[in-house]
Amino acid sequence: MRESKSEVKKRGGYKDSLKSLDTEETFDLIFYRPIGYIQAIGAYKLGITPNAITIVSIFLGIASGVCFFYDDLWINLAGVFLLVWADSLDSADGQLARITGQYSRLGRILDGISSETWFISIYFFICLRETLTPGFFHTYFWSIWVFAAITGFFHAWQASMADYYRQFHLLMLKGKEGSELEDSAKPLWEKFHALSWKKNFFQKGMLLFYADYTETQQKRTPELQKLRKVLYEKYGNNIPKTFREEFRRKSLPLMKYTNILSFNTRSFALFAAILIFQQPWLYFAFECSVLNIVLIVMMIRHERICKYFVKRIDNMPD
Fold first, then answer.
1. Which class for 276: exposed (0-12), middle (13-18), buried (19 or more C-beta within 10 A)?
2. pLDDT for the residue numbered 317
């Protein structure tokens, strides 16, 4: 439900539009968040919803991918501009939702789909460009598509795990109100099966994506799921503040890994591969090597933290 103007005014400051300083990237705070806030306020005055902003960002991101097909500096720079604009809108939709209270599961799903759609477009047009450029990928044209498919798999894994650990950190920091973390994938699947493809095609399709996304995140984090289970059994939904603060202190150093796996690092690497090295395929190599190392380190360390707290809770008196 949309809040009244007086309610928005009370909670409509720039700081209120941020998730938390724990999870915000420095470059975002310097660049994307201020621009996103201006666009969010403008959208609110025009009556534009967060979901509408997200949809616009999807088309801008797709257009940026088209621009990277051409081996032309100015067209590539246009692609950079469009992708930066798309990400500023991706920031604006979340900021608008936070200062107006326009949260929805659909919004979270669309937000996740938007950036994935940008990169699908970018991958596709980079592959086309490489197959038409004299060299290895022109001779063995199938190899760049295989390379892109492998990279896309790891890209999705990296992004989903970074998001999951970030949301769990926010849960400990702000409670359920400040986190978008789902309690379980089971209710999502139940709702999915209750809907009809004929009558609720779009909603059922969105739930299929989101339920699978959530379930995959949970399967890849066994120690975190054990921690959530013992916390619920011992405290229900009222986790003590002292515990949440201690977990936050141990989790905070890992937020730098979630930030490395975010859009900014990827976009800087992409721009360097296309504009500086003029070898777009190098971006795939970066994601498969550097970002996978960061992913592995992040998951091992976070699971280790969760295992530590599970043992600690098990040894505490009831």
1. exposed
2. 58
pLDDT at 105: 72
pLDDT at 10: 46
Q: How confident is the model at residue 44, as a pLDDT?
A: 93
Distances (CA, A) of 80 to 57, 119, 271, 287: 14, 13, 7, 18
CB-CB contact of 275 with 268 (8 Å): no
Taking a C-beta distance cutoff of 8 angstroms, is the pair 242, 263 a contact? no
Q: How far apart are CA 54 and CA 113, in angstroms?
A: 9
Per DSSP, 252 falls in state G
> Within 13 Å and on the Cβ side, how many CA atoms surround 110?
24
Token couple for 57: 């960002």
Residue 9, amino acid? K
∠ CA(169), CA(32), CA(97), 5° rounding?
60
**pLDDT for the residue 315:** 74
The residues of the chain scoring below 70 in pLDDT are: 1-12, 316-318
Among 22, 18, 20, 21, which Cα is nearest to 253's? 22
222 contacts 126 by C-beta, under 8 angstroms: no
What does the pLDDT read at residue 206? 87
- List, for residues 9-19, the tens digit of each pLDDT value: 445 578 888 88
Which alpha helices (DSSP H) does the chain contain, by range?
5-10, 26-27, 33-46, 50-67, 73-100, 105-132, 136-139, 141-174, 186-194, 201-219, 222-235, 241-251, 255-260, 263-271, 281-314
Position 1 scores a pLDDT of 42
